[in-house]
């Protein structure tokens, strides 16, 4: 039985009714009087000089209201990290990938926009292009950015302990290489936005984004207007998964066009443009060596990573750091060395996608653990348990395990899957595999250097005390953060959930850095709890003073305010209520005050009842270069066991069953936790078995549609057993931490380890198409 009134339950989602009935309004559903439509002209070439842009014919087309190019908007550089501002809104000297932005058009309808785009004439001088990350770093390769010779966008070199000496002292060293492919997030709703300037010169941008705050800052910078003159409003969002975590050319183009025309301007990407903008999963190449003692003790890990970043940086610096830092846990290591490089290529830029930076390298590492266990003659589960960190441990790269239910997760999936009776005992063509995952619960530092709070929340109680309004800039993108914040507020104030309203995703409400790095439950949750505590404190302070009682004797429970935990002198309370309420409503009739009555009294005494909350992490990380990346107030962890059937004649893989356990601290909403776990499994399954963005020899995407880029459907998903493991996270609100991204980490390696168990073929390249696996089976024979 839960000790909580609202938390740790299966409360329904706040946005469930409007989504289920089709009343939810997404960005593309919004229209305004006098609205214009806009579109972007994109490069057909992967690498070329821009010799001349002629917009004269397009400007003469009836219905065209504005056309902008680089000469109209300026050459202000922007990006995600100030350390790598390498983008301009429109290309001005050359284009760097098929899809690079050249110009934007605003017109009275979409047909006119498309015709105008076709009339813009651009003269190019085509340049040699490079599409392979290894070729890009070779001497003599075509150069994308003059300031980054050798196309080396970012590199990381970190070592903790003497790795070479540690490896030499090991009884066994096992090597492994692994290659994944570029993947698309495949969210159902394409990016869409509408921009409008008011008569005071303030820009309001309604946009499908995960990060209203960062969009506000970037748009203000590029349009050269004060941040306070930009308001970003996030409507309902149909999925994000990372690629909607930064300002995009659409948002900035609409801003410029709205200012120039004096009218609202709307733009929505086509599905092909979603693929061209990308900012999704990098292609990774990994080389790893793991050294162990003969008793199975892990000693040292050497890890090399090469990332294909595409034409621009986006989140790439963080990505290449994450790839190494997140392998510091959850296993104990005595030494670790990491060398990571991210190369520019003439393809769309890659960025952040669910499990940012950690998914491919976790897949490689967890395969390597199984390979090592096999050589040692150990059970893969027991090998992991032997080397597992526990709460209170510190990783070799100084990540603090303030809570870690990893051991409990492994034991849960071991027992929940009947591992002991299946491993090594399944018939030919059937296999079972295990893997673990580890991820941050909020980035320890903002993207830009600042002492800003990561989240602020305002809670305002209605005049009659009947409704508690939570106002936050946080981004509800389908993960359930609005419901989570409502539950935290309700729990703190001791009121039913249906007394809470949440308004979110608006930069005019409060500062919140957005939905990325699995930060909202912990960070926005902290700010929400503090704001609710402030409201509660004001009510207590007023009642205690008015009644002459000890503040500690006042408690909030089930929508009521109790004195000394139960009945008190309520005749005095009633008379006091009548006096202060001045006949506004009937006095209380029970032997307590309802929250509404207490809040109303506080309003009469002190005016509008408002509480504010804030959160930023304490100082985190070590003193070494790059220590800030990978640090977090807390870490989530997970384990999975997957069972598969492989058709040995065709290589076709069927995932039969998944058993998944995740440590989320306290599960604020158990249904939402399970939903995030299952969504992660579905996404990981697709990335493992069939997802790959394919290019032709000129850098054009061949499968830029959801008809040709295959993602999992309900028919691909097996039965899933979701097991919630609860540890108490001291740095989280009510002990809660992440579940949004960490649950994807074990999925790919668990499937790959199960395939090996079924076939004896170790897959080292994704996706595991039936053709690729069949050739592996054939080669083994």
From TrEMBL:
Q: Which GO terms describe its molecular function?
A: iron ion binding; oxidoreductase activity
Matching entries from Pfam families are given as:
Ald_Xan_dh_C (PF01315), MoCoBD_1 (PF02738), MoCoBD_2 (PF20256)
Gene3D superfamilies the UniProt entry points to: Aldehyde oxidase/xanthine dehydrogenase, a/b hammerhead, Aldehyde oxidase/xanthine dehydrogenase, molybdopterin binding domain
What the entry lists under InterPro entries is as follows: Ald_Oxase/Xan_DH_a/b (IPR000674), Ald_Oxase/Xan_DH_a/b_sf (IPR036856), Ald_Oxase/xanthine_DH-like (IPR016208), AldOxase/xan_DH_MoCoBD1 (IPR008274), AldOxase/xan_DH_MoCoBD2 (IPR046867), AldOxase/xan_DH_Mopterin-bd_sf (IPR037165)
Domain Aldehyde oxidase/xanthine dehydrogenase a/b hammerhead intervals: 21-128
Organism domain of life: Bacteria
Identify this protein by name.
Aerobic-type carbon monoxide dehydrogenase, large subunit CoxL/CutL-like protein
Q: Which organism is it from?
A: Desulfomonile tiedjei (strain ATCC 49306 / DSM 6799 / DCB-1)
